[in-house]
Every structure is written in C-alpha cells, then in structure tokens.
Amino acid sequence: MSIAKQDTAKKVTVHTLENMALKGEKISMITAYDYSMAKLVDSANIDVILVGDSAANVMAGYETTLPITLDEMIYHAASVVRGVNRAMVVVDMPFGSYQGNSKMALQSAIRIMKETSANAIKLEGGQEVIESISRILSAGIPVMGHLGLTPQSINKFGTYAVRATSEDEAERVIADAKALEDAGCFSLVLEKIPANLAKIVAQELSIPVIGIGAGPHTDGQVLVLHDMLGITQDFSPRYLRRYLSLGDEIRSAVQQYSADVKSGNFPNEKEQY
Ligand code: KIV
Questions:
Q1: Would you put residue 230 in left (φ > 0), alpha (ψ -120 to 50) or beta?
Q2: Are 65 and 151 in contact (CB under 8 A)?
Q3: Hey, which residues does 143 pair with through a beta bridge?
Q4: What's the pTM?
Q5: pLDDT the model gives residue 9
Q6: Any catalytic annotation for residue 115?
Q7: Kind and range of the H or E run holding 147
Q8: Angle at 76 between CA 71 and CA 77, to 5 degrees
Q9: What percent of the chain is modeled with pLDDT above 90?
Q10: Best mutation site among 27, 188, 212, 239 for ligand 1, i.e. most ligand atoms within 8 A of its Cβ?
Q11: pLDDT tens digits for range 31-64
Q12: What string of DSSP letters covers 54-77?
C-alpha cells in the first residue's frame, strides 16, 4: 500500500464519527483558519477541524460573524486543508451564502468543496434551512447542522446569552434537531444551551451531537482554537477552558525581541553570515 493510500485510510470520515458515537467514544473538534495551525492541530490527533466563520472575529477582528464572505472562507479553508492529513475538515457556510435560497446554497457549498477540498460544510438554523440542506445533500456534500446560539442570527436575538432556557425554545431546539437529522445531516453542533437540554437532544438523535457550552452529555466537544489557547483575552464565557495563556507568551516574546533589537543584542555573532 502506498503512503498516500495509508494516509487516506486513516482519514476521519462521517463514518468514523458515526462509529465513534455508537461506541461512546468522544469526538474532539476544534477550529483552525490557516495552514500552520491546522498542521499543528492535526498532528495532535484532533478528530474534526472546523474552519469556523468565527474567523470573522479571531482572524479579521469583526465584532460579529456576519461580514465574512464566501471567498474569505474559501481562502481560510483551502489553507487549512493543505495542512491536514487525518482530521475531517468541516467548513462553515458564511452568512448570506445559503439562507432563503436553496439554489444559491448549493452553489456556495459546491464552491467550498471544489475550491478547498474540504470534507463537509456546516450551516446554522433549523427548519427554515431544510430546503437548502436537502439540495446540498443531493450533491453528495455532507452537512453538519448548528442550533442553539447561532451567531449569524445575532441581530434577531440581540445577545450572545445562553439559549433555549424557556420551555418553548427548548421544544423548538428538539424539533429542529430532529428535522436536521431527518433531512440527512451527519452531525449537529449545539451551542450554549442548558446541559439537560443537550442531553435530551443527544439521546433522541442517532447522529453525533457536538457541544460548545452545552454540557458533558454530547458525543463530542468543540472550542475555538484562539479562545482555548488564550490568544483571545477579552472573551471568557463560563464554558471556556483555557489550556494556555499563549497571548501573554506571544506578547512577552515580542517584547523581548523588540528590546534585543533596540539594545543591539540581536543578532549576535552566531546569528549572522
Ligand atoms: O464558527 C465557529 O467557530 C463555530 C463554533 C463555535 C462551533 O461555529
């Protein structure tokens, strides 16, 4: 078997995730937006890399995820795919590329798959996006759903507070989750909803459910890379566990470099030709 074939054999697919969930093996998912980080993350054996539209926040500095374009998402996703061997790469469809027009949704999804070589797309919403999802699935493109806090609808909700705390909204999340599964989504992200509700959704669905701020009962967890590494420092929701204070480390390394340049300490004799 050639090396290329061995790599392909190890690649995480929708079936790998399905089997993991069946066996009760938790799925790890994390975001990445560029080649270098994707390569590092992939080498850490993460199962799924999400090229999230959170790129709008952490890469481009926008306040919301709304401004990022399809072209920009494609740029990030193609960069990520070039760094990945094993993980499944899922790409967020950006705001305005799929809502309300299923033909446009299919065209957007096809552009993502053709121009990035990613493995699946993710989009936000429930019953209102089923037509778009069905059309995308009909082209053989795996779709991951996203319910609960859906940041592309921030102007409708007005806040990033925890969602589905009322009985009505909780029932809608359950109904939407079932509709997404029935439509053929291979997986579902639940963002910032009560842990008990996420538990019910995970029990009622047979597809893998991945949580962010949705408690421990889902089939897997996802975090935004820049948040868990401590690169973003002004965002501290309760669910976020910071595994590093990389922001502080980067600042002090750059301060040291700048001081070395100014003092004439860099470059030294060994650092020249
Ligand atoms: O864009 C993103 O990073 C996401 C995750 C928070 C799930 O959608």
A1: left
A2: yes
A3: 121
A4: 0.96
A5: 47
A6: no
A7: strand 143-148
A8: 95
A9: 96
A10: 212
A11: 999 999 999 999 999 999 999 999 999 999 999 9
A12: THHHHTT--SSSTT--HHHHHHHH
